UniProtKB/TrEMBL annotation:
Protein name, as recorded: Uncharacterized protein
Family annotation (Pfam families): p450
Record's keyword terms, sorted: Heme, Iron, Metal-binding, Monooxygenase, Oxidoreductase, Signal
UniProt key word Metal-binding: yes
Signal peptide: 1-21
Gene3D superfamilies documented for this protein: Cytochrome P450
Length: 453
């Protein structure tokens, strides 16, 4: 497309926002807005942040901003006026304030869905979160320890969440989710050639497939041909059957299934990738992880499944995983939405603005974690020594990730079988990574894999 045509379309897309901003200018407050610039409507600082994330300099980008404006500043990201907050106090405020609701960029809301847990507040949030927690609580997850060994993360999520076996539908979902992810943090311009536009089309295809599965499961439940606790979808379909709560709509089930598959697949696979990457370059921690898991394996009979107690013995393996999450968090940061005008640290956060927090502002802070650039799993030997709201890989407060226990089991079981059955070494020259938006090794992290015995 010629540049002049693109610029014309872009100007026409932004024109209503220019008019809207002029018409909706807010009355003056007693407290000032945070320092900073909103930049150009719709785009703001989005391209600058995305460029920094792609070059793996997002942490430095935020640090420069904090050095310039302090721990609170205003900007515009992904089509919304935004306030960026940094530090443990900011994280506590973000995770505990009733005046803030979860908020995704317009691009993420469009792709994940408007009826997912991320978009809900109050009683709606408690209702859907309760349904998900019923399925993701440890007592239920114990039943899935052995099945977790049967495939990689997307296969696991498809089986656990959808009850979907290998085949054309699963293959189509794999492709669609990969394309959807690329547009979650993108400027929300819905044109055929934009990343956001392509992601939206992939989202529609995935939602159509999942809707078909939901309707099929509903019919099977009505005919009593499947169990209400067979998978996540049957669990969600069964909500409200006792008359004590309101059933979820098909839209809510689809959107929250998309959310769980995003969270359970992409973040877990990222963590596993960077654990494998790190162990290939760290013989000391590799030996500790190997010894711990070989001791567990030696106590098992051939082909005997792991037990819950076995998983809980993998203490160093999980400490190493936590340190990977600290240094390379899969989720760079996230957003909240102000439900009303909020006064914070002498500034006003206007109603409707989004609030950005980023994990690196505490997890890579030398005042919290000594020598933060050094990789040291022993930091997590006594988690109670870590200041509250400083390690936020799973969020915090009432908004802590409901799938954190599932992530722990998935990671530990997978790594147990990897380290006890295989040896590997990196076969790539470039050991770097970019965020698009999750951390992704530059060359895809090819490895030479050798089975043991």
């Amino acid at each position: 497309m010629p540049v002049i045509v693109f610029l014309t379309l872009f100007f026409l897309a932004c024109l209503p926002l220019l008019v809207l901003r002029k018409k909706t200018r807010r009355p003056p407050h007693e407290k000032p807005l945070p320092p900073g610039s909103l930049g150009f409507p719709l785009v703001g600082q989005s391209f600058g942040l995305l460029r920094a994330m792609r070059s793996n300099t997002g942490e430095q980008w935020l640090r420069r901003r904090s050095n310039k404006y302090g721990p609170i500043s205003k900007l515009s990201l992904f089509g919304r006026n935004t306030v960026f907050l940094a530090g443990p106090g900011a994280h506590k405020f973000v995770f505990t304030s009733d005046a803030l609701a979860l908020q995704q960029p317009k691009s993420a809301t469009a792709i994940i869905g408007s009826r997912s847990l991320l978009e809900m507040i109050g009683e709606e949030h408690r209702r859907v979160r309760g349904a998900l927690m019923q399925f993701l609580k440890p007592e239920v997850l114990r039943r899935y320890v052995h099945p977790l060994t049967k495939g990689l993360t997307f296969d696991l999520i498809c089986s656990l969440v959808l009850g979907l076996e290998r085949g054309k539908i699963r293959e189509a979902l794999v492709q669609d989710f990969a394309e959807m992810l690329s547009g979650v943090w993108a400027v929300p311009i819905d044109l055929p050639f934009t990343k956001f536009g392509k992601s939206l089309r992939a989202r529609r295809r995935a939602a159509q497939l999942i809707s078909g599965i939901v309707r099929q499961k509903k019919t099977l439940l009505e005919q009593r041909k499947c169990s209400p606790d067979q998978d996540l979808i049957t669990c969600l379909l069964g909500l409200g059957g006792d008359g004590n709560s309101e059933p979820l709509t098909e839209e809510e089930i689809v959107d929250n299934t998309v959310l769980i598959m995003f969270a359970g697949h992409d973040t877990s696979s990222t963590l596993l990738t960077f654990i494998i990457r790190h162990l290939a370059n760290d013989p000391t921690n590799y030996d500790l992880v190997l010894r711990e898991n070989e001791d567990i394996a030696k106590a098992k009979a051939p082909s005997e499944a792991l037990t819950w107690d076995d998983v809980n013995k993998m203490k160093h393996t999980w400490r190493l995983a936590m340190e990977v999450l600290r240094t390379i968090p899969p989720v760079f940061g996230n957003f909240r939405r102000a439900l009303k005008d909020i006064e914070y640290e002498g500034y006003i956060i206007p109603k409707g603005w989004q609030v950005l927090w980023a994990s690196s502002t505490t997890q890579m802070d030398e005042n919290i974690f000594k020598s933060p650039e050094n990789f040291d799993p022993s930091r997590f030997e006594n988690p109670s020594c870590i200041p509250p709201y400083s390690f936020v890989a799973f969020g915090g407060g009432t908004r802590i990730c409901p799938g954190n226990e599932f992530a722990r089991i998935e990671t530990l079981v997978m790594m147990h079988y990897v380290v006890t059955r295989f040896k590997w070494r990196l076969s790539c020259k470039d050991n770097g990574f970019a965020r698009i938006p999750l951390p992704t090794p530059t060359d895809g992290l090819p490895i030479d894999l050798e089975p043991k015995n």
